Amino acid sequence: MKRKIVLMLAAAAMLWLPAAADEGMWLLPYLQKMNIKEMQAKGCQLSAEEIYSVNHSSLKDAIVIFGAGCTGEVVSPEGLVFTNHHCGYPQIQALSSVEHDYLKDGFWAGSNEEEIPAPGLEVRFIRQIADVTADVLGNVPDIARGEERTRMIADNVAALTARLQAEHPDQEILVRSFFGGNQYFSFVIDVFRDVRLVGTPPTSIGKFGGDTDNWMWPRHTGDFSVFRIYADTENRPAAYSADNVPYKPLRHLAVSLDGYEENDFGMIMGFPGSTERYMTSYEIDRMLDVTNPQLIFIRGERQAILKEDMAASDRVRIQYASKYAMSSNYWKNAIGMSRGIKKLNVKAKKQAQEAAFQAWADANTLPQEGYSDALRMIREGVEASLDDVAALQYLNEVFFRLTASGLRPGAVELLYPVAVAQAYASDTTGAKDEAWLREHLRNFYKDYNMPTDRKVARRMFGIMQERVKELPGVFAEVIDGQFAGDTDAYVDDLYARSAFADEQRALDFATSATLEQIEADPAYGLYASVLDKTIELMNRQREASSEYADGHRLYIAGLMRMQPDKAWASDANFTLRLTYGQVMPYDPADGVTYNYYTTLKGVMEKEDPANPTEFTVPARLKELYAARDFGPYANDKGELPVAFLINCDITGGNSGSPVLNARGELIGLAFDGNWEAMSGDVAFEPDLQRTIAVDVRYVLFVIDKYAGAGWLLDELTIGNKQGEAAPAKAKKSRRAKRG
User: Fold this and answer.
1) Contact criterion met (CB below 8 Å) for 404 and 543
2) Residue 211 designated active-site
3) Is 588 exposed, middle or buried (0-12, 13-18, 19+ CB in 10 A)?
């Protein structure tokens, strides 16, 4: 069977006919075989080699992973990077203070010397991509299942990674699974760690519309920010140094002022984070009944508290701006996802596919191949783990999540510095020295407000007590035993007594305390109790998760075998992909049609003094609009475009991705999907699904006319109306500007 699966994947790579409409986040090595004919038929003027080349620079060399979860693009020979405002938001927030409020006022460097280092920010270039399925699955028997299969694959991936790391000692190696574990690719990556903030519009442009407009169309958000990559004097990745110089990229994108018309070809390259297009009806039930409702409720309760405290204090607003934005984005996504799945009857469509698959598997495959058992394995895996999944989600959302890269804080932040101090005190390798400890604690407390966290903790502990059956032992042993079940009294005592509730106390305590003394702190008792319950729940899920994984893999392989003439795309997994389509309007409801672009006029119309947080228009923007001073960035009608729609297939992680025209020139930055098709991560909706992008002409207008930072445009390769390279017409500015 293993050989059959490999042959099916190879056959899929030979097909070029697309799936329905413009569905598909396509792997670049397969463009020549699968996609380029269709792309050119739609209007693309490039060859597959110009988009992705193994031996020469190509468009893919201008695309970067920006930070931990976004995409960016290099737009100048001096390492200038465009990405979304919401992608740069964590760094903009981290660099802001009450005295220098770059969130509220914006920031624009007037020269390279004024660009601000962004500690911890990294960008990654994909240098090599290779199909390594044979290396990973070559010695895995067809009949291998469960823990045996998992162990063998893990060993093979580790050996392959070690070999590739030896061949590329200064680069990062990543091996990723595709098609549910039926195929594997390796990626060789350059990581640049000296990245600096060059410019950002104020929130009143970069987040215009706020939560109200998030995921909605028409949209009028100038969702962009500008950074620069620095390298050592030999153009190699290097840690921050004052001696570093702007990076000279292998390729940068040209920028087009031509704009677009309805039905024009466009494509997007980037790093889509996660989709679940092969999700079954059983998983949809779990999402609609358990995981989405829980996420929506928990985050909604916390966000209400954060919002109140942020409105009362500029310091707290800055501290919690990024945390609130990240939480609310996924909160609204979950609301829209559940709505879309129900409204578009996605479950019934999945059930129909499952019925067809089961009938095919029963009639056309042998029992030992496993296809006829695939859906049963998925169903039983989901059902067996349902209660544990629900309990674990509460622990992850309220307290913390264990990830491959470490502990990720939940709503109750107090436990993070406890984990840091415990890791420091128990380290025997010397890797975590006092400097490491101080850096982690200072970074945490910079954006921590104890009274806010205590309010959140009071609400979260009450929720846990009311709604969760599988509670950490601290609830029975301490809250019930010592506080008669009064969670508020417990929380107040915890924050009054723990050294970790105050930055200076925490620094003094953690740098001098023994492991035994740290474990005596009341916050450590809570941390240990939650950790024990988290590990218990994860271990209990292991068998069910293993059965689910086997069923999922066989289901995907079987679907491909059942429909050999269909071009299949793997689910997104934050690897470099390409999607293509056309600039198009859409009809969200009967009698309603949405145009395919918006203009600055709509910004003015949306101004709302009653909602200044979301719908304030800067005075300078009003002046430019009143004077119709749009420079070369207006369209042929004299309008200033702000955002536009294209029916490409994207998801989270594509934020900041370049939208390219038929010539491969930058026309916009993808930043959102649309409300009517929020179920798109589970089922692509060809009639409704649209990508929302900020028009690059609005980006340049804000940089040049609004911010007066036209010196940056001198670096760009800007095309004229005939698509030829032309110098940017912009005044130079040599002083830093805000807003």
Assistant:
1) no
2) no
3) middle
pLDDT 10s digits, 284-312: 999 999 999 999 999 999 999 999 999 99
Determine whether 119 is exposed, middle or buried from the number of CB atoms within 10 Å of its CB (0-12, 13-18, 19+): middle
Is 655 catalytic? The answer is yes
- Express each pLDDT in 81-90 by its tens digit: 999 999 999 9
What residues contact residue 435 under an 8 Å CB cut-off, 6+ apart?
none
- For 326-381, the pLDDT digits (tens) are 999 999 999 999 999 999 999 999 999 999 999 999 999 999 999 999 999 999 99
In the block, tokens 């620095």 appear at 230
CB half-sphere exposure, 255, CA atoms < 13 A: 29
Tokens encoding 380: 């039983």
DSSP single-letter state for residue 123: E
Whole-number Å distance between alpha carbons of 67 and 51: 23
Q: What one-letter code names the amino acid at 457?
A: A
Tokens of 565: 């003439």
Q: Are strands 255-256 and 718-719 parallel, antiparallel or unpaired?
A: parallel
Largest CA-CA distance found in the chain, in angstroms, rounded: 77
- Token pair belonging to 714: 């001198």
Query: Per-residue pLDDT averaged across 120-142, rounded?
Result: 97
Concerning whether 86 is annotated as a catalytic residue, the answer is yes
Amino acid at 226: V
Where are the extended beta strands (E) located within 297-438?
Answer: 400-403, 406-409
| Distance of alpha carbon 360 from alpha carbon 331, whole angstroms | 39
The residues near 155 (Cβ < 8 Å, ≥ 6 apart) are none
- Distance (Å, whole) CA 318 – CA 323: 10
Q: Is the dihedral of CA 434, 435, 436, 442 positive or negative?
A: positive
Residue type for 578, please? L
How many angstroms separate the CA atoms of 484 and 253, rounded?
64
Single out the catalytic residue among 58, 177, 281, 655: 655
The residue from 86, 252, 440, 552 that is catalytic is 86
Positive or negative, the CA dihedral 151, 156, 160, 166 is positive
Q: Residue 487 is encoded by which pair of tokens? A: 């969670």
Sign of the dihedral through C-alpha 341, 207, 326, 119: positive
Kindly give, in sequence order, each residue whose CB lies less than 8 Å from that of residue 347, ignoring residues fewer than 6 positions away. 281, 284, 285, 288, 341
Q: Tell me which H or E stretch contains 245.
A: strand 245-246
3-state helix, strand, coil in the chain (%, to 5): 50, 15, 35
Which residues in 123-202 belong to E strands, given as ranges?
123-131, 172-178, 183-192, 194-200
Tokens of 297: 């409720």
Catalytic residue among 223, 388, 521, 571: 223
